[in-house]
Amino acid sequence: MNVQQTLNYDRIAVALDYIKLHFKEQPSLEEIAEKVHLSPFHFQKLFTEWAGTSPKKFLQYISIEHAKKLLKEQSTLSETAFETGLSGTSRLHDLFINIEGMTPAEYKNGGKSLSINYSFAQTPFGNIIVASTSKGICHMAFSEDEISGFYNLQSHFPNANFKQITDSMQQNALHVFQYDIDKIARIKLHLKGTEFQLKVWETLLKIPKGKLSTYGNIAYKIEKPNASRAVGTAIGSNPVAFLIPCHRVIQASGNLGGYMWGNTRKTAIIGWEAAQIDVEKSLL
Prior knowledge:
Elements: H1 3-22, H2 29-35, H3 40-51, H4 55-61, H5 64-74, H6 77-84, E1 97-101, H7 104-108, E2 115-123, E3 126-132, E4 137-142, H8 146-156, E5 161-164, H9 168-174, E6 187-191, H10 195-204, E7 213-214, H11 215-221, H12 228-236, E8 249-250, H13 263-283
Parallel strand pairs: 1-6, 2-5, 7-8
Antiparallel strand pairs: 2-3, 3-4
């Protein structure tokens, strides 16, 4: 990952915003390219390098029709994958990522006994802050501003001791943004959350990469079928962006719903993961 990748995402984000605003007009490649100040040739090249697929194909991945198709599939073949946590060639599931809840004391005293390392990095979806305790990753959030990113982290653990340093757990976790994830070791998360929140977050880990679920379905999975609103709140308080895939939860209508780090970023991640799945299938 490098600075250029982040700059590329910024341009892709502008293009996605333009497409969402003008999708009824079916803007041409030339029109979209003009909005990011590139020639059609260079925009197509940039987009394909970033997403792993063409702009036209990417638009299919982020359409409501495609979302509805994925939701329908979930009640058939992929239901098995959801239940077991297995997702074919995708290894980001509950058998690969383990969640450990913080102790009641750590939860209540603002992390007074915790030493937390943190660092910043570039990802395909913008800058991110990642933090870890001795037990695992405790925080990961997209943040364009390092100062506000740190203050946000500090607000969750006001009494912890912080050190800006990149450790091996952080480096391992950041590998998830690369296409080849076979080199990643098991990822451990050390999270501050209620029993209900932890249960919701663990359930999110079972949604396979490239697939989608709904708030109502997550409520059903945790045996709280009438708790869709509470589930939505728990998803919205996810402390670990991307690793806990709250971006894979959308409305039953096929609309995206909300996202703590912005709907443009959610759209980009959903499309990017779908493109990766197609690449993985082509290699089988």
